[in-house]
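Hey, I'm writing a tutorial for new members on how sequence and structure tokens pair up, and I'd like a real worked example in the thread rather than a made-up one. If someone can provide the structure for the chain below, I'll link this post from the tutorial.
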Amino acid sequence: MLKDMFFCQDRKACLCFYYFIMNRNNKKDILLAMIRKGAPMTFSQQARLVLSLATPAILAQLTTTMMQYIDASMVGSLGASASAAIGLVETTTWLMGSIC
């Protein structure tokens, strides 16, 4: 059982975390059951589902953009040709990542 997987010194905090996870999983299970049955969903349920599906893609795009800025700042001190090469590679990588 999930409760047995957590080893906590503070039992109250451990149980709160367990019930938080189980409550979150139950909400997802309810939404999945509604989709499978073809039941109508409220706007808030639809928004929650879209956000839960879109969050990983949004985080991936943000981290990719941050890495591109970090790469450009690290190579910027090497000169114009190195900066141009990074710009070319990053643009190509972003394009291929969005196509594939």
